[in-house]
Amino acid sequence: MKGISLLNSLAIILGVVQTTCALGYNDQQQQILAPAANIKDNRPNIIFILVDDQDLLLDSINYMPNLNKHLAQEGTFYRNHFVTTALCCPSRVSLLTGRLAHNTNVTDVNPPYGGYPKFVERGFNENYLPVWLQNAGYNTLYTGKLFNAHTVDNYNSPFANGFNSSDFLLDPYTYSYLNATFQRDSDPPVSYEGQYTTDILKGKALDLLESAISQTDPFFLTIAPVAPHSNVHSNGPIIPGVDLKITAPISAERHKHLFKDVKIPRTPNFNPDEPSGVNWIARLPKQNESNIDYNDHFYRSRLRALQPVDELISEVVDILDENHILDNTYIIYTSDNGYHIGQHRLQAGKECGFEEDIRVPFIVRGPGVLPNYEELAITTHIDIAPTLFDITGLPLRSDFDGTPIPFKKELNSSDPVRHEHVTVEYWGLAIPEGKYNTLGPDNPEIITNNTYKSIRILSSEYDLYYSVWCSNEHQLYDLKTDPYELNNLYVTSDSPGNLNEGREILGVSLAKVIHRLDALLLVLKSCQGQTCIRPWDVLHPEGKVETIVDALDAKYDEFYNVQSKVSFSRCEFGYILDAEGPQTALTYRDGIEWHHWV
Ligand SMILES: *[C@@H]1O[C@H](CO)[C@@H](O)[C@H](O)[C@H]1NC(C)=O
Ligand SMILES: *[C@@H]1O[C@H](CO)[C@@H](O)[C@H](O)[C@H]1NC(C)=O
Ligand SMILES: *[C@@H]1O[C@H](CO)[C@@H](O)[C@H](O)[C@H]1NC(C)=O
Ligand SMILES: *[C@@H]1O[C@H](CO)[C@@H](O)[C@H](O)[C@H]1NC(C)=O
Ligand SMILES: *[C@@H]1O[C@H](CO)[C@@H](O)[C@H](O)[C@H]1NC(C)=O
Ligand SMILES: *[C@@H]1O[C@H](CO)[C@@H](O)[C@H](O)[C@H]1NC(C)=O
User: Fold this and answer.
1) Reaction catalysed (predicted)?
2) Could you give the C-alpha distances from 241 to 176, 208, 517, 561, in angstroms and in order?
3) Does 475 map to a domain?
4) What is the largest CA-CA distance in the chain?
5) What pLDDT, in 10s, does the model give residues 32-69?
6) Which residue's CA is minimally distant from atom 8 of ligand 3?
7) Does the beta carbon of 156 lie inside 6 Å of ligand 4?
8) Is residue 412 lining ligand 4, measured as CB closer than 6 Å?
């Protein structure tokens, strides 16, 4: 760069800084940014790799050597990372806004409750992570799947905002491994019939990366392959029942021979002899040998579909290294939701609250991130947007339901300042993928009434899952003794003769624990911002309760006994408030009879 043009670019950068400040960042931010024109350039780059439907618990990451070598060994593996809604579109909208699905009200993959049109209708196209980072001076780039129901018909009405350059996969071809349609910037869609989608995507991602590196602005590049999602063929909208075929993912030719002997891990919850769960899951039949063989094939197909993603990781790292920016670039790897195949007798799919569905890989390398480290503190997808604000120096938004993950230091997993809870919510359908379901091959069955609210809470002392379904069925699993969630401990205080009678968790009866969990869920299912981060403060404004252990104090027994209980009046497909029972909790006030405050 010649002297004069360097000066010009500095002036331009200064100009951008001033504009950025004018957009309302706080004074402190201005003071930091304004004096040194080149500080902007020192902000880290971010590469966000967002795969589709990858599990944490079915071992798929162990078949990705580059992910392990370049990210896990060089970075931190967040072992207790959860999604808050186990379905692509709601999860992605939560991730990109830092808000729980009950606060985005994008709760499904298709309108009226979800999909790209609902995202736009709710105003998020002007108000989500890429827009925020672009306004802050980041060069924002994206390739791959953004949201469901983002289609060849609606991609330009309006275009997705916030990207300096984008190249999106569009429905109904998003999940066609050999017939993808991509749509770049404001160009019309282009079909890639006969080509392998993840390889095309890799080419696009590397081009975007090279172009970002050639610019002076720091960049935020998202690479969102559909692997290892199932292959979906549709001639219309991707809605069950509309000429839709859901099959195992298709492998690239060069990977077809791999993993011939690999099978789904036969964990104790794999196709168990006794049914488990509640509602439709408790009614599933045990799978026969042909079904299991098919599911093993489905599983191997997923591992193969992930291989091009693994290759991509290595190429991205090489390019960063060659350009000497590897040390100033965060690479974040995760999935929009987890996946089950055969656990609890389920056919392939997601949408459940079981561990397989809500835990996903979350692996980060970058400046200051501890290498070869496994973090046990709880982190979730709604923490990701706040975290990116944190590492790029932006003040947090008050509507964030999550809280930054301090990438640069070891977290103390028993530190109550980090939350012990995960809010999990779901509305509407479950769709078993693959050919074995009661409606027969290639005919996706729709399970209705898959609406539930749950919490996971965990620390070194306890590890619990509690949920309430729209049918008012309940689940309680103690994962310390039942890590595969096979033994539902839920009892009501008046269920005599119950097998679980006399059983204790944390030294008290199940009923006492359930009352606390229910109250915590009551707060979390309608929390906003800070109350999602510190829910016990809502129940105990005097601030003496920070964990479930604190709440178990006998002096609160009566308060929790009479607390409103989470319940539903009916099953709905979306977030319909009047179907969802009590919305607010009673509050405890020390030294004063709490019920005087009701
Ligand atoms: C990205 O787009 C924003 C908004 O249009 C613009 O101000 C910025 O200069 C662009 N950055 C690059 C590197 O093109
Ligand atoms: C591939 O996609 C195009 C649209 O982009 C469509 O017209 C064509 O029918 C598809 N081919 C197959 C084999 O499905
Ligand atoms: C296995 O179960 C499926 C239904 O789930 C049925 O269609 C198939 O015939 C069964 N196969 C055998 C060998 O029993
Ligand atoms: C973690 O936090 C707990 C609770 O605050 C504290 O007792 C413990 O000493 C901390 N451990 C470390 C390693 O800082
Ligand atoms: C479950 O869904 C079906 C079909 O939508 C409906 O008829 C039934 O009443 C629902 N069950 C409950 C418990 O709401
Ligand atoms: C969520 O969106 C649906 C569909 O537009 C609407 O019917 C519902 O009232 C909304 N829920 C809330 C709590 O605003």
Assistant:
1) an aryl sulfate + H2O = a phenol + sulfate + H(+)
2) 18, 37, 38, 45
3) no
4) 86
5) 343 334 445 689 999 999 999 999 999 999 999 999 99
6) 290
7) no
8) yes
Query: Of all atoms in ligand 3, which is nearest to the CA of residue 437?
Result: 5
Q: Are strands 219-224 and 244-247 parallel, antiparallel or unpaired?
A: unpaired
Instruction: Show the domain range for 161.
Output: 6-340+349-364+377-414
Of residues 324 and 414, more confidence is placed in: 324
In a domain, 560, yes or no: no
Q: Give me the active site residues, please.
A: 88
Q: Give the Å distance between the CA of 347 and the centre of ligand 3.
A: 13
Residue 549 lies in a domain: no
Structure-token pair, residue 533: 């981060």
Tell me how far the alpha carbon of residue 293 lies from the centroid of ligand 3, in angstroms.
Answer: 11
Q: Tell whether the model's pLDDT for residue 285 goes beyond 60.
A: yes
| Ligand 5: residue whose CA is nearest its atom 13 | 471
Kindly state whether residue 30 falls inside one of the protein's structural domains: yes
pLDDT confidence of residue 332: 98
* CATH at residue 315: 3.40.720.10
Contacts made by residues 586-589, CB under 8 angstroms, sequence distance 24+: 586/539, 586/559, 586/562, 587/538, 587/539, 587/540, 587/541, 588/539, 588/540, 588/541, 588/542, 588/556, 588/559, 589/541, 589/542
Within 6 A (CB) of ligand 1 lie 134, 139, 164, 215, 217
Please tell me the total count of domains within the chain.
1
